[in-house]
Amino acid sequence: MKFYKEAKAKELSQNTRIFAEVREIIERVGKHGDIAVADYNVKFGGAPAASFRVPQSELERAYDEISPELRGAIERAAANIKKFAELQRDSLWPLGEVEVEEGVFLGHSVIPVDSCCCYVPGGNHPLFSTALMLVIPAKAAGVPRVCAAVPPMRGSVLPHPATLAALKAAGADEVYAVGGAQAIAAFACGTETIAPVAMIVGPGNKYVTEAKRQVYGKVGIDFIAGPSEVLVIADDSASPTVAAADILAQSEHDCDAAGILVTTSERLARETEAEVTRQLADLDTAETAAKSWEENGRIIIADSLAEAADIANEIAPEHLEVNVKEPFELMGLLRNYGSLFIGEGSAEVFGDYVAGTNHTLPTMGAARYTGGLSVMNFLKVCTFQHITPQGAAKLAPDAETMAAEEGLTAHAKAAAARIRKI
Ligand SMILES: NC(=O)c1ccc[n+]([C@@H]2O[C@H](COP(=O)([O-])OP(=O)(O)OC[C@H]3O[C@@H](n4cnc5c(N)ncnc54)[C@H](O)[C@@H]3O)[C@@H](O)[C@H]2O)c1
Ligand SMILES: N[C@H](CO)Cc1c[nH]c[nH+]1
Ligand SMILES: [Zn+2]
């Protein structure tokens, strides 16, 4: 393996700065509630607002006023996302009572969280597709209170109309025009107008992602879903135009996004790099995409496709594309990715919008330990047990023995109390 193009080394001090800035935002919102949220909203571009709560009538108005073409696309995407979320939900069954030994009955219930906040990004672009990706699985899981937080548009008190329309199509119960780390803090700590939630989900920039990391524990989170990443594995049969287009599609999200090509073909490496330059010249998001490519873009030449798979497993990218002649042959070797795109026809952007799989996916190596968002993130698998007198008679002696060995006398007595007077 060798590097054809390397990423720039990251300064550690940047992470320390973001950690401290986000901690301050969370502390201020925790202490001052709505006033702090309002200040931050204005600081980051929103207009001063009497309330952050977006009335249902605004959602309906936006839904009615967007173009029929966009409304149709939103509804079509929503239908695929809903269908897939419901199929995934139905693949997870509650386990009725199972008798593991005489009188010892065990089982599990599948219970939705009481409430959640779906964070819909809106800093650089109004990512209304994310509203569908978050709210629809939460609803399919049966979460009773599904809230959404979206930054207000620059100079406005409201989020982008397409986002409001998508939230209406997805069926959000409460919508708040609040963005960034302050939104995460508000839903974790609660404010005068925002009741806290059990769980916060959704992607965002480095501030949002760091805020989710810091409030984890106070509330549940899905996982680290930060700036977008794509890794394309390509052999000599792949198209450099497609590889470059897919790299730029993720690079345009954020200067912190990352596009990576891992290829067995030096020719493809050369041609893809040239294609990135050519396509950048005609891209209205070139400023962000070029910075992301320059700072975080990588081209790696692998000795074999097996080595390319090892590299991908090591990086654990958010999106993994397999643009090779026989993509299914490589599948068994790939373990760490947020979502897999098999074959050159399976464009990553189809997953972003309309295929129906979720586009909220782990980044920064989190795909080593988690897959992407699904209906399962909103469901708790909670065990229960029912133990009859016969079952207790069998379990108590072993429980007493184990408790005594751990030096936990009250535990031993609690077991014993089931079978004799203590
Ligand atoms: N991993 C995934 O599943 C996934 C999916 C979709 C989008 N994304 C990523 O989501 C991100 C969206 O980012 P965005 O910025 O457009 O929107 P965003 O909503 O995530 O963040 C915007 C907010 O960030 C805050 N902010 C901006 N600069 C700040 C600063 N200097 N200090 C403190 N807070 C600051 C502000 O409150 C602003 O409203 C992109 O990185 C994109 O790649 C990831
Ligand atoms: N590619 C993003 C996930 O990293 C999702 C998205 C939303 N809109 C366009 N793309
Ligand atoms: Zn995207």
From TrEMBL:
Class of enzymatic activity (EC top level): oxidoreductase
GO biological process: L-histidine biosynthetic process
GO cellular component, one term: cytoplasm
Reaction(s) catalysed by this chain's protein: L-histidinol + 2 NAD(+) + H2O = L-histidine + 2 NADH + 3 H(+)
Residue positions binding Zn(2+): Q250, H253, D352, H411
Residues that bind substrate: S228, Q250, H253, H319, D352, E406, H411
Cofactor binding notes: Binds 1 zinc ion per subunit.
Enzyme Commission number(s) of this protein: 1.1.1.23
CDD domains noted in UniProt: Histidinol_dh (cd06572)
Swiss-Prot/TrEMBL cofactor(s): Zn(2+)
Pathway: Amino-acid biosynthesis; L-histidine biosynthesis; L-histidine from 5-phospho-alpha-D-ribose 1-diphosphate: step 9/9
Keyword RNA-binding carried by entry: no
Keyword DNA damage among UniProt keywords: no
GO molecular function: histidinol dehydrogenase activity; NAD binding; zinc ion binding
A Pfam family this chain is assigned to: Histidinol_dh
Active-site residues, as the UniProt record annotates them: E318, H319
Residues reported to bind NAD(+): Y119, Q182, N205
Keywords recorded for this protein, A-Z: Amino-acid biosynthesis, Histidine biosynthesis, Metal-binding, NAD, Oxidoreductase, Zinc
Family indicated by similarity: Belongs to the histidinol dehydrogenase family.
Primary role: Catalyzes the sequential NAD-dependent oxidations of L-histidinol to L-histidinaldehyde and then to L-histidine.
Protein name from the UniProt record: Histidinol dehydrogenase
Natural source organism: Cloacibacillus porcorum
Gene name linked to the record: hisD
